[in-house]
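pasting for ref. prot 1 ->
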Amino acid sequence: MGGPYVLKSVGDKPIRESHALILNSRAFPTEEQALTASRAAKAAVLYTAAKLRMSVDLGGDRPIGGFGQIMKEQVREHLKAELRSDVHGVTIYDDTLETVFASVSASLTVAKSGPTFLAVLSDALQRDLRPSDKELLALELYGVLQFESSPRARFLTLVSIVESLTDNTTRPPQALAHVENLIAQTGSAELEPGEKESIIGSLRWLRYTSIGQKTRNLLVTHLGQTTFAQKAADKFFGLCYDVRNQITHYGKTPEAIQQLLPELERLASELLLQVVE
C-alpha cells in the first residue's frame, strides 16, 4: 500500500469544482511496488466513483503528446529536471530526479461535495483494494457511465456491469454428462466440418450455467432481499434483462426503461461495492 497520498486539483479551483485532479504518492523502494500501489489507488478512485455514483475518466495510461530531444535537453540544462510527457492515467517515474510533466495525469468530474469525496477516497485508499480483472472491468464500466447520454446505452452498460461480475460455474454432474453426450453425438454426426464445429462450439458453452442462473446466484448472494422498485434484486434484474433482450435483439426501446434506469443504476452500484469490498 502506498502513502501518504496527495490529491490536488489542476489550477486554482477547489477539488469539488475541478475537472482534472492529480493523485500522487512517492518513495516506493521498487518500481514493482509502485506499480502494485498504483493499481490499488486506481481501484480506490473507481470504488469512490461507484459509491458516490459519479463519473470518472482515468484514461488509458498513455502519454498525451510528446517532446523533442532538444526541448528535453533544454529543460535538463536550465531547470535541472527531466521533462516527461504527461500521461492520462497512471504513470510511474524515478522521484529521486526532479521531474516536470506537461499537465495532468488523470481527470474526473467531481459532482459531490469536496469533503465527502475526500472522505470516501481516503477510506478506499486505506482498504488497499485488489479487485480481480473482472471486478476492475465492472468498476471501469460504471466509472464512464455518466458520460453516456443515451438512456438505452446506459441501460445496456449497467446490465453488462452485472454480467461481468458473474463466474462460469459448471452444471450439476447429471446435466453435464448429458451435454458431453450431445457433444460426442455431434462429433460423430454426418455434417459439414464447419457446421459441426459451430454446433460443438455452442454445445460447449452449455457446460456452464446460464447467464440467468449466474446473475440470480450473484444477486441473491450479495444483495439478499434488498429491493429495487419493490422487487427482490434477482427478480428486478430479470425484468431488466428482458428489456435488454428487446433492445439488443429487436432494436426496440420499451417505455419502461426510464423507470428502470435509476433503480438499475442503484443495483449496479450496491452490487459493485459488495463484491469489491
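and prot 2 ->
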Amino acid sequence: WKGLIRYHVFFAIDRATRRVKIGGLVRDPDGKWMKTVIRGMLDAVDGALLGTKYLILDRDPVFTQEVYALLESGDVTVVRLPPRSPNLNAFAERFVQSTRRECLSNVVPLGEGHLRRTINAYVEHYYYEERNHQGLGNRLIEPSVAANGAGPICRRTRLGGLLSFYYREVA
C-alpha cells in the first residue's frame, strides 16, 4: 500500500471530430516515455496522429527536443502554447474537466489497470458512441445504434451504472 498516487495521461483530440485518443498513462513521465508515446501515435498503420498537420502542446518539460524532432519527421507541426495560458487549449481543458468531474470524482481507481479501464470506458461512452456534442450539431461521433426507432427504450450502462446511454431497440 503506497497511499495516493498521481498518474499523468497523455491524450490527443481531433478538434474537427472531437475524437479522443489516449496515448499513454504513467506515474512519472519523462522525455523517454513521451518519445515512446509519440512514436506509437505516429504509427503508419493505426497511429492517432496520422494525417495530422498541427499538434498543440503546452510547455511541459517532457516534450524534449527529441520529441519535437520525432513529430517533425512525421510531418506534424508543433504549436507551443505561451506560458500560463490554459484558455488557449479549450478542447483539452474541457476534456480534462469532464473526465475529472463526471467520471474520476465518482470512482476510486484501485491501481493503474483500473484507472486505464475507467478512462477508456469514459472515452468510449462520452467521446465516441453515446454522447451527442453541441459543437457538432448535437450528433454522435460514431453512433452504434439508430437514434430514433419505434421499439422499446433500452439502457446501456458503463462503469457499474455511473454512465448510462438510452436508445430505442430496433424492432
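The beta strands are 8-13, 20-26, 54-57, 77-80, 132-133, 139-140, 153-158, 163-168.
The chain has four helices and eight strands.
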